[in-house]
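pinned: reference chain
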Amino acid sequence: MGKIVQFFRECYAELHKVVWPTRDDVVSSVVVVIVSTVIVALVLGLVDILLLAGVNLVF
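pinned: its structure tokens
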């Protein structure tokens, strides 16, 4: 039981050493993820439309 208590004490101590990101850092990271997701979705949609047009042209 003592090792379990020691484990949680060490975890608690390590969490105090963590440098948590600021709100601005989190918001900017979320914006980057959303923008890049939209760009990738648009590119894949365009590729899908072009491939569909090519397949329809062949068949």
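why pinned: The chain has two helices and no strands. The longest helix spans residues 23-58.
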